[in-house]
């Protein structure tokens, strides 16, 4: 009987100790701090104030500076069928960004979905300035900041020689009480595993009247490498730029009432309403749709079955065009 009682006592002690150890492990798991992820790129990182920089995208402007650190890059059509970038930074800031160029009317509607962003650009035509002033944008342009922040690169020709020091820009902006620049709260996409697709996309060609981008799937890097025309699209650091998720967003592009100093008509890319899109990730293409009821709403991306399309965490580029891309399996 004593042996039985002793056995039960030992067994009970083991169970109690195991329970305590289990609770300890559970407590550790429960108390483990949640990893902060950047809202825009879905990767571990901070959510700092949103800075949007307009960047020249003509051939003479390449290689561009600081693009590799952008969380999101929009490629939009400007005068003469060329393209210009709106690079969005939140998780981190590079020391320099450029070459900085002027704002366009499409930027107001496009950027409204991100809240009140800090908007960095070289300037704007006089007719557009009051419209920009009324928009929900914090004006951080070169027109309001000194050359110590918006400097000139002596090794680049004008007008593609304006280079921004973003840390000094935000420091100066935040020193003013009236400055309001949001941090990311909601992203215009959802991150998740790739949904079923039978369409391989080893190369994709995206066109505008006088500009072409190509995306080539790299099996080794498991990313789409970006080509500007036929040349590798390099950052000034020497890195071959890439995307983890690319979207060709088919939009209406129409002439606006604005123009450049050379007489070119500024096109307007409409990013509210509904339309079709091509989502590229993991070497596959997905035909999806987009919808955005008003400027304040974020864009929603849906599969053909109506479910929300999943983006891959990482760098995201959105190409705004009215031409269907050419996809090579």
Provide key terms for this protein.
YerB-like fold, 2 domains, alpha+beta, 4 helices
What does this structure look like?
The protein is 16% helix and 33% strand. It has 329 residues and is α+β, with helices and mostly antiparallel strands. The strands form five sheets. A ten-stranded mixed β-sheet has the order 5-4-1-3-2-21-14-17-18-19. Strands 9, 10, 11, 12, 13 and 22 form a six-stranded antiparallel β-sheet that branches. The chain has a two-stranded antiparallel sheet with strand order 6-7. The N and C termini lie far apart (78 Å). Mean pLDDT is 91; it is low at 1-30.
The class by helix and strand makeup works out as alpha+beta
Shape: globular
CATH topology of the largest domain: YerB-like fold
Quickly give the CATH architecture of the largest domain. Answer: 3-Layer(bba) Sandwich
- Average predicted local confidence, pLDDT: 91
CATH class of the largest domain: Alpha Beta
The string of secondary-structure elements, in order, is HEEEHEHEEEHEEEEEEEEEEEEEEE
Total individual domains: 2
Radius of gyration: 24 Å
Unreliable spans are 1-30
- Terminal residue distance: 78 Å
Approximately how much helix is present in the residues?
Answer: 10-25%
| DSSP, total strands | 22
Tally of helical runs: 4
Strand content: 25-35%
Biggest beta sheet attributes: 10 strands, mixed
CATH homologous superfamily descriptor of the largest domain: YerB-like
Strand order of the largest sheet: 5-4-1-3-2-21-14-17-18-19
